[in-house]
Design brief:
The chain has 249 residues and is mainly alpha-helical. It has two domains: 6-33 and 149-248, no CATH class; 41-140, no CATH class. The chain is 57% helix and 6% strand. It is built from twelve helices and five strands. Helix 8 crosses helix 12 (227-243) and helix 9 crosses helix 11. The longest helix is centred in the last third of the chain and has 19 residues, at 189-207. The chain is globular and about 55 Å long. The two termini are 18 Å apart. The relative contact order is 0.17.
Length: 249
Amino acid sequence: METLTEAQIRAWIGLRGEARTRLLASVAGELHHRPSLPPDHLVIVKPARWLLEKAGGKGLPIDRQDGLARRFAIPANTKLGYASPGLMPGGDEVFMEIDFLFTWLRGLGATIKMGSTEVLSHLGHSYLHDPPALWYSLASCLGLGRPNALSGEMWELILAWLVAEADLNDLFDALEEAATAVEVDLGEEAGESMAEVAFNSLYTSLRALDAFVPKPVDDPNSPCLTPSGWLAAVEALRTFVATSTEAIR
């Protein structure tokens, strides 16, 4: 996905309401070409390479739902320096940063299931020794792994807002418009919950790529992308464009 055409980008943007179109159009100029490789990509992909090395050794233990076994994932997430707790106070499991990395690597074909473990594939071996290719693929997975329906559009809008560094009201207007189009009220409990889940899952996935800088003291509620996180978000938006059904109609 080296280059996207103007027609693809316009199609992705155009079949939406005014507020969504305005927000997505603010990042259109960044989407034509693949972003540059961040200088710190070796540090960013280190956790993913650690998982690949484990897969290439004894394998990664998986549970009955084919996710990472909690006995491995929870201490490993902490070991890798991530913030998500393994369990909520009530005992419910949390989908952590390491879970995103594992899901992405498996989706890329870097690991394959063998019994109760996930082992390294030939492609995974290639990724292990090609950090630039691994970074681009993981950044694309931010787009490929988007949720369905309204939650997925929320991901797009939040990423566009982060890349554009737009006003928070522009994001709220776009989210409200998207929700209204499918008859969801973000002011009601179900709508608020959907938006909260979209925000939290996207931010966890971005943290898996070390995408945030510390929140500024004067604006603690504003998430900020690192330079490499900004590049990853651009690549994710490009993936949205390339895979959008609207873009190929």
